[in-house]
Structures are given as structure tokens and as C-alpha cells.
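Worked example 2:
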Amino acid sequence: MATRKSNILAGGAVKHPAEPQPERPLTAPPDVIEAMQALDQSMVSSPEPLTSLNQDPQLVQDFLVEAREHLSNIEARMLELEQGTQTEETLHAAFRSFHTIKGLAGFLDFSVMQDVSHEVESLLDLARTGQLALDPARVDVILQSGDYLSGWLNHIEQAQQGRPSSTPHPPADLISKVRATASSDQPPPSPGAADAPPQPAADAPPQPAADEPGATSQGPRGETSLLKVETAKLEYLVDMVGELVISQSILRHTPELSEVKSPRLQRNIAQLTRVTAEIQKTAMSMRMVPIGQLFRRMSRLVRDLSRKSGKLAELEMCGEDVELDRTIVEELSDPLVHMLRNSMDHGLESPAEREAAGKPASGRIRLTAAHQAGQIVVGVSDDGRGLDRHKILRKAVERGLLQPDSTLTDNEVYHLIFEPGFSTAEKVTDVSGRGVGMDVVRKKVNRLRGRINITSQLGAGTTFHLEVPLTLAIIDGLVALVGGERYIVPIFAVREMFRPTAGQLFTVENRGEMALVRERLLPVLRLGRRLGVKPKSEDPCQGLMIVGESGDRTFCLLVDELVGKQEVVIKSLGETFQGVAGIAGGAILGDGRVGLILDLSTLASGVSHAA
């Protein structure tokens, strides 16, 4: 068959072989003809270069999002294989993910990512057709390839944002390792391989599995599909819904409307309140993501730490379907990483030590999540050696954090590990030991308006419970009055409220005012004095005590009275008032006035420990 050749110019025009054309008389003036010929000559001699598709920001951004989803899926599948929990679909899903990344990278001219993906795809194709067994060494190579591709994604993202980033090393060594892994010790196909159902060819378009990123689940009456939305648009929608809630609250508390005795008007306002509440609930649910995606990322961390330390560990996960705010999930990543590293390095013993203590050689680390009293409680526990109270106290005294005769509860002793630079490790390793990680945990959790509880038993293990709010956009609070000012106390930090009597109040030397609450002396913090606001009365018996908690501190907050409980939308106070001690933000109340949200962790830092 004859082949027709075409020459494609750099400018994108197609130049075909010359063919005889009938001569036509030139009707244009000679000067116009000369100008047109000069223009044609300039276009041929200095063509414009083609713009590559990888210069399109939107295409690249979509590629980054989808490729990261597939890499996360690949990592989960490889860990399933290594742990022996794989299904028939596991290998096929990992293969399709690499195939998709290869196709997308080739479309956008990311040739390095395309080459690496192609080599790993070939390796997985041998495994899924029964020609190659995936042992731990081969799984390591596949995971290393995924890490390399992830590094390239980070580099591309940094380049898009105009930030400096070092280019990942050339992939020649990695590709050679993948090829050597694929060609070494290939066993013959298993007897049942011929009877297996035919698999899609490598060049066939990938079909997503039911639990693979990008998949849609189809029911008998239709299908459920997903739509990706920019985070900025979602954040703006949530902000506008917050403004709607505030406007509706102001309208409902307008004095002029309350004087109108129209049943129809009251019904309309009640209907508006219900609709606004539903819109708010729906908008907030759009920010919610399951915590399981964070837990699954920790599986790889535990695996790598186990390989590095020589300790055996199994990770159990419970409550993966619990949903909370996307921002909180992202912020919890660092605390969980540091706590798992701490559990692996300090908590779990070596296999020999565990067997000598009558324990299984393999340790167990457990991640849990559950709803509790309007909050999410994330648990990190291990069955290791536990926290040594005497060792922690001795180290605290050596560092000058405590006096030798100090008397602390177990919970207060355990919270000393969160002090900056505090560590009981005998030697510093590349995993932990510098006393930095747990300090990061406390700072992150405090920033999320959460708290940490610790339970431990020497020789049996330790459990950390991180209590964090469902969302950072809305908060339930008690509106307290001091003088003419109103303040919002986050309700998750409130234990109880009471009106004090003279018999409950004491003055303790070097500790100031104390209140006896349930046979325990708690320090009293006068909110008016702390914030420079004159209260209605200086007599504590004329005020109200709010027992608040922050971390390991419990104290009484003295206010004039309580106005009530209210759900408020948190507003930032801006750069001018950023960092004001004791204030976490502001909220617009029902009458349109601004109430300040108290930061109990900062307020608690100025009071003495409870006795």
C-alpha cells in the first residue's frame, strides 16, 4: 500500500508534496502580492514553537490529584499482598493504577514518570499472570518506585507554584533494579493459570475496581458518581453558609420582629431556621472525610519502621469510616506519625525481650477512632513496655522541671513527656530520642482545640487518646458575661459549673485562690482580672465558676453569669489581634455583636497545678 508522506512544520502547518496547480491570473496589486509573499516566508523561516500540554496548569493539577490517588491505592495494595490479606482483585488494581499513571504521564510529556511506570507495570503483569511471585523484596522495589513517582509529583507541584525544588535523581538505577527483579528466578506458570479468566491487555484502557480511586458504584436503580471540586471553592461555600447562619440568627433575634404577633410570620421564620440548619449541615458534611485514609498511610510507616528497627509489629485499625473535618485529618497526620515512631522505638520491645516476658514475639499497635460527646477520639495504643513513672520523674527532676518532693498524679507525670526536649531514651536514634516528637504532638492538638489523655501500665502498654472537635468552622460554646463583655467558652473544655459558697473558697500560700470541688482543690482564675475587664462584683460568691480542662490542667474560671449555650461560627480576628493571649477568635452573636472565644489552653498556662 502506498504511503503518503507529509512534512509537519514546527509551526504546526502541514506541507504536502507539490502538486501541479492550474495557473490563475493574479488580480491583486503587485505591492500586496509582495507583502503576502514576505509574510509567508517569515512564517516558514521563524515558526512559533508548539506549547506542550504540561504547561497547562489545569491539566497538570488534575494529573497531580489523580496520580496521588493511584499511588495511595498502589501502596495499600502492596501492603495487602505483603500481609497476606489480598484478594483476586488486589494485583489487578495495582497494575491498573500504574497503567493509568503511565498513560497520563505520557499524555503530558512527563517521560521519566512514564518510563518508570511502564517498567513496574511490566513487573506486575508477570505477577498477575502467574509468571512471577511477589516476595517482600519485590514488594520493596514496587514501593520504592511509588516513592520515586511521588517525589516527581512533588517536584512538578513546586515548579508549578514557582518555588525552588531539586529534581529527583535520574531513574536509570531504579529502572535497572525493576528489570532485574522482573527477570530473576521466574517460576513457570501455575497449572491453573491456563484456566484463569482472560486479563485485559496492557494497552487496553484501565477499568477502575469497585474500591479503586475514581471508581463509581452502580446500584440497581442508578449510579453514584463523584465530582471533584476545588478546595478554595468549597471553603468559600462554607464561609458563605456561615454568613447565612449569622444573618438568620440576627434576624431571629431582631426586637422589632419579636413584637409582631403574627403566627404566619413566626411560621416563616421557623421554616427559614430549619432550611438554614439543613444547608449548614450539608455544607459541613462536604468538608468531612473518613479518617481511614489517614490510618492507611500509617500502615506504610509501621512497616518501614519495623524493617529498620528489627522489631515485629502488627497494625490494627478500627473506626476507619468515622468522618471529620478534612483540615483536622491533615493536621492529625504529624501527631500520628510521631506517636507511632515513639511506640515503635520506645514502646515495643524486641522479639527476644517480648518472648522473655511471656508476650508474643510480634507487638501490636492499634489505631482507633470513635464519636464521643460531640467529639472524635483518636486512640493510639501499643502492648509494649509502658511508661515508667519513676524514670519520668527522675528525668524531670534532672532537667529542673520539678522539685524532688513534688507530688503529681499519674496523668500529670505522663504529660511531662510532652515538654520540649524531654526524652527518657538512653541513646538517640534516627527514629526518636531527641524529645521533639511529643512536643509537636501537643502543639498540633492544642492548635486543633483538642486535648490528650494518657493511660499506661508498666509492662502492659500505653494508650494515647486524642480528643479533637468534628470541625474547626463551628463550635458549641457557653456565652459568659463579665462586666459588659461577653465571652464564649468552648463547651468541649467545660467539665461542670456551680455557684461557689464561702466554705468552698480558700487562699493557699504561693498558689493564690483555690476552690474545693469534689474534695479537690482547684486554682481559681478570675477572667475579669486576666482580661482587664471590671466585673459586676469582686465577691466570688456573687459570680459563677466554670470548671475547665486544658491538657493536664483543671481550674475554675470565675465569670459574672451565663447567658446561655450557642453554636457559633468561628471568625479570625485578623493579623492585628492575632496572638492575643487567652483569645482564640471571635463570633457574631444573635444580636449582631461580637463575642470573643476564649483559649483555655493559654489561660490555663498562668494558673498553678491543682492539689
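The mean pLDDT is 77. Residues 61 and 157 are 8 Å apart (CA to CA).
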